[in-house]
Every structure is written in structure tokens, then in C-alpha cells.
Amino acid sequence: MITSAVFLVNKDCNQRCNFCLNSWKYKNHIKELSPKQKKRVIDELHNNGITSITLSGGEPLLDKSLFVLMDYASSKGMRIKLQTNGVMITKKMLNHLKKMDSVLVSLEGTKGVHNKITGTNNFEKAVGNIKLLKDNGINVSTNFTITNDNIKNIKSYLQLTKKLGVKANFTRLYQSGCGRSNYKELNPSLNDFEIFLKELSKSKQPIHLLGPVPVCMLRKVNFKHSFATCAAGKTEIAINPNGDILPCPSWPFAVGNILKNDFKEVITNLEKATERSGCIDCSDFSICGGGCLVSRLFNGNDLFAAVGKNKLGGRGGLGETSCRTLTPAHARKNSNYSDTVSDANIYKATNTI
Ligand SMILES: C[S@@+](CC[C@H](N)C(=O)[O-])C[C@H]1O[C@@H](n2cnc3c(N)ncnc32)[C@H](O)[C@@H]1O
Ligand code: SF4
Ligand code: SF4
Hints:
By secondary structure, this protein is an alpha/beta fold. Helices cover 35% and strands 13% of the residues.
């Protein structure tokens, strides 16, 4: 049953992270919903049994209607989480942010590493605002997307989050947007990934693995912390800034549109598109579900394979250019990622798994 949704409220962002799963934001071809339509999205979610909503983007704090949406969702009794790069948080926002269940601030490494990945000098601002949230009693934690750029930074990073007194969340790299174009360069080797997981396991700090890592791999390294499994289309959906419904924010195809299609019909499409298969004979399948479904979509059973030949058209098969090596201006100009396709194509694509 779907009980939570990640609502990507806007496309704009003030950073250009080299792994960012949103490449559509570089091009203006998604028509973002109006504030009024965004409220209707919340109505639809609420009316269809969704009790928890994560407001994300783009950078959601750039969306002028964000606090209106928060208050609106809150008035309906929904649990609200915010995903932000933290840069734009101000003291004036604290009263709004106190209504949040939690705030997840992306912090991709210690100073030099974070700035390199995000293409900014925003590290100090992000850290300052994490402290501000923490000092004001807001439930704040960090998120770190694991790539070759920060995997070796982990010991220093854990010292930093310890000093900040916050829980550190970690997400594996999803093959979406720039994270897909640059997957081969950015996705850590299996060996490095296991060393990384062991390093996390040694720590006594509060740590949570957000991105779904196959349970067999966690068992292999005797992973000691909490972890999430793939919720795509099982308990969670994502809504793009134009209202398109996806099984998760990284899914390459829409299964419908929340303001245009019947929600229950869309959920049926969603269930078909995200049917778990692959290693169903495994005794851990009921808890694991076979790892990240997007990874399975691209790599079949080789859940950590670098992008090579894949079922959806080879490396960069969705048309992204190499985001990491390009300047933001180039990235904006050259990216031609097509965000959504027609229903017919959804099934053509997913049935090839
Ligand atoms: C897409 S961002 C949107 C919200 C906000 N701009 C931020 O950075 O927190 C949400 C989260 O997704 C993570 N993320 C972005 N691209 C990713 C990818 N390719 N794989 C895994 N996580 C990714 C970011 O690190 C961030 O924590
Ligand atoms: S991950 Fe980085 S580039 Fe992507 S939306 Fe968040 S801050 Fe912007
Ligand atoms: S279900 Fe598949 S990915 Fe998950 S633990 Fe079993 S073999 Fe590993």
C-alpha cells in the first residue's frame, strides 16, 4: 500500500551536483505546476491515503509556495519531511520548519569534497544552517550520496557529523540524470563500497543507510546500522514538478499524472511496473525485495555493475551528456533528457527487465 510520497515541488536549483538525479531541471521542457495545482496535488495525495509527504526538488526552498504547501499538508494532518541542500535556510523560516517531522540536509563530504561535488562554495552555509536547525530543536540529519568523489572521505565526514551531533544518512548512487551519465566514473567499485560499509559499521554514531543496498551485501560486511529497502511503488511514489507520478524520484518513466489520470488506475500501472523479480528464491527476498529497482532496470541481476550495455539503450541511453566534466552552463545547454514518455513506452521499457 502506498502511504508516502516524495513531491519534487520545483525544478530550479542553486547547485549543480555532479551526480544529481534531476537532469530535467537543466532544461525548461517540464512545465512546473502552479501553486494552486501544487495544492491540488496534496489534496489528491491526502484523499488517496498518503499520510507522509517529503517535499524535495530541485531545491525546494527556491519555491515561493513551499511554506504554503507545508502549512496546507500540515493542516490535513500529514507528516512532512523536507529534503534540502540547506543553503537558503534563514532564522525567519524556523517557525515553519518546526512544523516538519524532519529536515534532511544534503552534506556530501567535508569542505573541499562537498564544494567540489556541488560545484559551489556552499559548505560553510550548509553546516551553519544544520547547526541553526539543531540549536532550535528541529529534527535535522544529513544525507551523503556515496560516489568515488567522497567514498574515501568517510572517516573525516563521520567526525564532522559527530561534532554536529546529527544522524548521518547515506544513499547509494542512483542511475538517474547526471547520476546516470556519470555512473561509470562516479559509482564506486564493489570492493570500495564494501570497505565503506565496514567503516560505517565500526562507528557507534547514529547512521542510517537510506538508499537500498542488497541485503546479501549488508550481511557480507556484517552491517550494524539501520537500513532502508527499496520502497519504489511498494509503499512510496514520487511526483515530478509537472504532476507526473513515478515509482521513485529516479525512475526513468512516468506511470501517469496525478492531476490528469485516475489515481487508482495509476497505482495499478505502478504495481505492474515495479513487480519485484530477479532473485525471488533468496530467503531474504521478503525483506530485501532484490535491492534498488532502478539499478535492476539498468543492470539486471548485477546490481552494482558500472553502466555498460543495458536494457534501455546503453550508457547514457536516456540522452544525458556528461554532467560532471561540463560547466553548469554547458550542462544546461546540452542536457536533452526526456523526463517522461507515454504509457505505451513505460511497458515496453519495464517489460524488458
Ligand atoms: C535530488 S535532491 C533534492 C533536494 C535538495 N536539492 C537536496 O540536494 O537535498 C535530494 C537528495 O537526493 C540525493 N541525490 C541526488 N542525486 C542522486 C543520485 N543520483 N543518487 C542518489 N541520491 C541522489 C541528494 O544527495 C539529496 O540528498
Ligand atoms: S542534489 Fe544538488 S543539484 Fe540536485 S537538486 Fe539537490 S542540490 Fe540541486
Ligand atoms: S533478494 Fe537478491 S539482492 Fe536481496 S539479499 Fe537476496 S540475493 Fe541479495
